[in-house]
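hey
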């Protein structure tokens, strides 16, 4: 078993030039997000040119292409260990044959989004907030994507966001105060397009703030340009949730991109997905949250992997997540501890999951345990009388 090296994982190293060193890509091209997107690694031949594939991966690359496209930016591909099929970066991004395995309990729409769409592309499940699906494309495709039914354009369903109807709906829904832009990856839209969408949303008086969910800072940090940050800065309060699952994803390029966003005043949170063989241990999660804090990102949610079709090989038991939270709470700074949540299968929304620190409780007292297992009694307030009447 591989020994986890905290010091090595917490260090910021550069993802460039990695596999591309010998091809001598000029630095200005490597640092250009257009070049990164144009040179994404997609085909079996391209992947095989760099990685020693195992049979499960080779078959997966050939067979999963009609479910969710395969594409990886050179930046992210550089993080993959060539000779290690258990590499935590590789498990997230290289298809495996297990994606085609069928479990009838798994779903194509595990969060029940389609049944909560008043307008195509707009999910309104919670009273005061909506999810706005603004694109179906991403810089790279995560093999456990909860929205793989519409993301990447090769599946059975297609995202057909009705822009004008969605804005009309929002204008006439005064209870909506919070709009989350997602997809796909909103930061893949051009600066001009993003500017227009944010400006239109900001013109609706009852929308108090906008959030963006994006994995671009991890897959394509070159996209976090000063120009993009300037646009986002115009629309405060604007929050950004990134998606990092392993400390190795936080390279020096990612750290610098996140610094540009933080310097533009954008509060940053991380939503990570608990994945078997990727981040299902306390030590990996501890290094991840420490490194996120170094990047000025608050670990926000740790998601139990959704019941998406073909994800069984990446899903962990729920108790693994509870053990991880227990291993973090009290053992590291509270600011670094994400909320472990499960999106209720079929569409019940997020349910928080926490280790139980209450041993017993009645009207008089509550017996608690701390992170070391020591017990403490907390008495409830009682009706007291003055000492002297
Ligand atoms: S970046 Fe998000 S939307 Fe895109 S494939 Fe990954 S999880 Fe799915």
């Amino acid at each position: 078993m591989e020994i986890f090296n905290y010091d090595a994982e917490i260090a910021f190293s550069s993802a460039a030039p990695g596999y591309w060193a010998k091809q001598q890509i000029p630095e200005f091209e490597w640092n250009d997000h257009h070049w990164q997107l144009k040179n994404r690694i997609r085909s079996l031949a391209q992947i095989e040119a760099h990685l020693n594939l195992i049979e499960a991966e080779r078959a997966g690359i050939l067979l999963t292409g009609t479910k969710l496209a395969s594409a990886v930016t050179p930046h992210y591909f550089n993080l993959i260990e060539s000779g290690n099929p258990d590499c935590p970066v590789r498990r997230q991004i290289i298809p495996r044959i297990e994606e085609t395995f069928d479990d009838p309990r798994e779903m194509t729409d595990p969060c029940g989004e389609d049944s909560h769409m008043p307008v195509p592309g707009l999910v309104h499940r919670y009273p005061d907030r909506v999810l706005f699906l603004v694109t179906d494309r991403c810089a790279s495709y995560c093999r456990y994507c909860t929205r793989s039914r519409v993301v990447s354009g090769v599946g059975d369903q297609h995202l057909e966001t009705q822009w004008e109807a969605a804005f009309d709906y929002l204008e006439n829904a005064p209870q909506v105060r919070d709009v989350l832009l997602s997809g796909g990856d909103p930061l893949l839209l051009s600066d001009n397009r993003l500017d227009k969408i944010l400006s239109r949303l900001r013109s609706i008086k009852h929308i108090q703030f906008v959030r963006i969910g994006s994995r671009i800072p991890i897959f394509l940090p070159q996209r976090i340009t000063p120009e993009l940050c300037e646009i986002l800065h115009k629309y405060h309060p604007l929050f950004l949730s990134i998606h990092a699952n392993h400390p190795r994803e936080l390279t020096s390029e990612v750290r610098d991109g996140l610094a540009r966003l933080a310097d533009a005043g954008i509060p940053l949170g991380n939503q990570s997905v608990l994945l078997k063989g990727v981040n299902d241990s306390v030590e990996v999660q501890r290094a991840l949250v420490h490194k996120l804090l170094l990047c000025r990102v608050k670990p926000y949610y740790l998601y139990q992997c959704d019941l998406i079709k073909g994800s069984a090989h990446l899903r962990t038991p729920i108790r693994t997540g509870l053990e991880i939270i227990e291993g973090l709470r009290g053992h590291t700074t509270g600011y670094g501890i994400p909320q472990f949540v499960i999106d209720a299968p079929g569409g019940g929304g997020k349910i928080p999951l926490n280790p139980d620190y209450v041993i017993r409780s009645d009207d008089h007292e509550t017996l608690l345990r701390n992170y070391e297992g020591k017990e403490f009694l907390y008495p409830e307030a009682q009706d007291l009388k003055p000492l002297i009447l």
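Residues 137 and 314 are 22 Å apart (CA to CA). The radius of gyration is 22 Å.
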